[in-house]
Known about the structure:
Elements: H1 8-21, H2 33-40, H3 44-56, E1 60-63, E2 66-70, H4 75-98, H5 104-118, H6 124-142, H7 145-162, H8 170-185, H9 189-212
Antiparallel strand pairs: 1-2
Helix pairs in contact: 1-3, 2-3, 4-6, 4-7, 4-8, 4-9, 5-6, 5-8, 6-7, 8-9
Amino acid sequence: MADKTETLGDTTFKRLKAMILDGTLEPGTRLSEKKFADHLGVSRTPVREAIGQLVSEGLAKRSAGSAPVVSSVSLNEIMEILHVRSLLECEASRKAASSGKSTAELSDIRNKMQGFIDGPRPTAAEHSALDMRLHFILAEMAGSNLLLELIESLKVKTGMYDQGSIPDRLVPGCEEHIALIDAVIAGEPEAASAAMKLHLSNVRKSIISHIYHPF
């Protein structure tokens, strides 16, 4: 049975990680122990522990003589990440659709995605959290812990890039996710794989388009 005990450092790490993924902490932001201890209402020790975890996960990096900073992801890196994600997540979606596992949470996510389209629009944090959960639950349904770990790591890095870097993908992204969910719920492995491939391809195209046509 997993240890349910969560330290203050763990909680602080989750809060800082969420701030990075929803764009509150942009790439290059200095992670000062004192500043974030004051901001989060904790001592410097859990902040120090949290920053260490961020560095170990690649969400922050250390530089000589100064505080760690939030990492950035280059265009070449994100293209490579999306390619690998497509290989992994298309397979995860195929397996999820074939798993025969309960799709109750997927139905709930589908309803929330439709709500995002119909309005009111969600905050960046709300959308990011639901998007993350969808990709993770599909990996969980695929039944491989290694696949889940790899997808989680790569999805986090994609999230670091697309905050403020990709044009508004809310509605098309939600529509693509709904099509993906529908295929999984219907138990159609090839349709689910194709839906995931299309979604990640459109993310890639959107990034490239924004790089060359930013306005």
